[in-house]
Write a structure and sequence with these properties.
The structure is a homodimer of 230-residue chains. The first copy, chain A, is mainly α. Chain A is built from ten helices and no strands. In chain A, helix 4 packs antiparallel against helix 5, helix 5 crosses helix 6 and helix 5 packs antiparallel against helix 7. At the A-B interface, helix 1, helix 6, helix 8 and helix 9 of A face helix 1, helix 6, helix 8 and helix 9 of B. The structure holds a DNA duplex (30 and 30 nucleotides).
Chain lengths: 230, 230
DNA sequence: GTAGAAACTGACTGTGAGTCATCTAAAAAA
DNA sequence: TTTTTTAGATGACTCACAGTCAGTTTCTAC
């Protein structure tokens, strides 16, 4: 254990410490209302030091977000491993994403930073690349399930696995976002439980892309849905 | 025409002038990069004056956005009026939103301000109310088509019109957002045309919620899709 | 012990949202 | 016509905060 190695370790540790402080502050206040001074104070470092480790506030934010991506990827990978039938696995994707949404709401909210246009000014290209790589990895998992399902005759042969993944993921994401923002409003004004809508939407989609035989056999069809979280 | 009336008119006109300047600047630079000073200069007024007419930068932004909502509402209302069959009308909703997306991309992008959490700090409650009212109005149009379609046996009786509207709108919105941000990436890395995905997603959804007989009769099924915009 | 490198600091700069004491010109009153 | 009142407009100012950098401290090597 030479000195350079120890220093390298210490540097990495400092990076982590900063990231932990940032995560705490970002979770509490969101990107806009968090300040670098506050993060620095929590990390017991000066503001200048933060910039030795991270290029900008946004870079720091995205690095925290990547932890969320990792977490979600892990959850999805595990669910996929434990669900051999592609039809059921696809249904599990929806359930797992919902579970992630409930347990790690702060990370879920961070994800939408990427989608919000015009907020990327300060993000370094390398950071952008990291994020794209991470998302690609997770997309690949979902697309592969579709590909496998088509080969096994579970999904219709005329659907494109990538297209199906985009459709399922986009609508799931969009409805969860609505649950996060507007759940109470929909409940009050139109008596709609958006959580139910989320699962019905996924079910409707699967019914549309699965072959009738596979759908009839699928075990999720009569599964009990989670209760509303409102 | 008394003096108070004239003054009132002039005040309203000034409000509009400010709004026009703001729209131009926001369209060019987005919310973050636009400054009140720049808007003031373009409107040939001092910054202080802007705050006599609008409570905050965000209020001003949302007021511009409301113009976009109006525009979209008008387009949807007209399409609905000219399409008697609820099945075709639902398909038209997707086409009209796409047309809006293409022609008024700047407004489309503004819409997502509402969804982005934590950006609403500076928005006045009245402004929020206005936005909710506007969106409700447009939701109602879509929901009514579903309700009518169910009564006429075009849509399955076991679907809830509000739920169907949420699902269709959310997924459409989400895919358009992806087209806006990531169209080229998907084309390059996976050779996927997201515009096609958008229309296929809508078609898949309609197939799932329409009765088989109505679907067989629907005129949109074999319609030619718009070419990619990439 | 000392030279030099690496890590850290915090006062400083620049920017931009929002404020407010002051000014101006039009309307009302005299 | 002159004076008073008032609504509307102004822009210099404050305050907050991201990002910088000249200077300081701490650690390593010799």
């Amino acid at each position: 254990m030479g000195i350079p190695e120890r220093k390298e370790r210490e540097k990495e540790q400092r990076r982590e410490e900063i990231l932990n402080a940032a995560q705490k502050v970002f979770f509490e206040k969101g990107l806009q209302s968090s300040t670098m001074d506050e993060i620095a104070e929590l990390a017991e470092l000066s503001k200048g030091t933060l910039y030795l480790y991270y290029g900008s506030k946004e870079d720091l934010y995205l690095t925290v977000m990547l932890r969320g991506f990792d977490l979600l990827h892990g959850m999805i990978a595990e669910a996929e491993k434990e669900t051999p039938s592609p039809g059921d696995a696809m249904w599990m994707m929806g359930r797992v994403y919902f579970e992630f949404f409930e347990k790690h709401r702060n990370f879920f909210r961070m994800f939408h930073f990427l989608q919000y246009p015009g907020l990327h000014k300060q993000v370094s290209p390398e950071m952008m690349e990291s994020c794209n790589g991470q998302t690609q990895k997770t997309w690949k998992l979902v697309i592969d399930i579709f590909t496998r399902g088509i080969e096994q005759g579970v999904f219709r042969r005329d659907i494109n696995p990538v297209e199906a993944a985009v459709i399922l993921w986009s609508s799931a994401n969009s409805i969860l976002l609505r649950i996060d923002n507007e759940c109470d409003r929909w409940k009050k004004t139109l008596n709609i439980d958006l959580v139910q809508v989320y699962f019905r939407s996924n079910a409707l989609f699967l019914q549309a892309v699965m072959t009738p035989e596979a759908y009839a056999r699928a075990s999720f069809v009569r599964e009990e849905l989670p209760a509303s979280i409102s």
